[in-house]
Amino acid sequence: MQKVDGVKVPDAYLPLVEDLRLLRSDDNNPNAMTARQKEQVWLSLQKYGWTYPIITNRDGVFADGEQRAAVCRDHGEFFAPVLRLAVSDVDRRMLRQILNKLRGSHDRELDAEEFKRILEAGEKDCLAALLASVGEKIPRLLDDERAGSSIIECYELIVECKNEPEQRCFFEKLKAEGYRVRVLNL
After folding, report:
1. Cα gap 101→91, rounded to integer Å
2. If we measure between CA atoms, which residue out of 63, 52, 54 comes closest to residue 25?
3. For the packed helices 66-74 and 35-48, what is the interaxial angle rounded to 10 degrees?
4. For residue 18, what are the β-bridge partners?
5. Nearest residue to 59 via CA among 91, 31, 107, 33
6. How confident is the model at residue 147 (pLDDT cuts 50, 70, 90)?
7. What is the CB neighbour count within 10 angstroms for residue 17?
8. What does the alpha-carbon distance between residue 32 and residue 66 come to, in Å, rounded to a whole number?
9. By three-state DSSP, how is residue 84 classified?
10. CA 74 from chain center: how many Å?
11. pLDDT (mean) for 61-86
12. pTM over 0.90
């Protein structure tokens, strides 16, 4: 693994390294990140390097990684691995949707064990920062004989709204009733 512009790049990705300033946005990326999430991306890049490349079409228009590229440019890092695919504009957009939206579900018990291992390794602050960046808190991990069931169960409800004013109304009503609520736009 070598450092390119300060961020580590696996040897296999070295032939893909390009100047990020030459890539283009279509200005329609539906994925937005908070400042906290962007800082977590930066910390992750500094610690782990490029674990996967930015993906564009042949013309250098982003399909995946636009936020990572922006974070790097903001920190004066201008080179990263870029995988250019021969895809049509609609396929590039489909890739963006797939890579932004398709995710697996988490098994709470396996998450609890993973959190526990991370905490035991002394990385509580890193874990807390990561979870906070996505709007979650470190679950209360039990140190007693019930350690196997260490995550407090949490149930969520998604309410589909007709428009943004209705969404705001539901949000304010539930918040006023003491519920922990967050806005999710799909």
Report:
1. 15
2. 63
3. 80
4. 80
5. 91
6. very low
7. 17
8. 10
9. strand
10. 17
11. 95
12. no
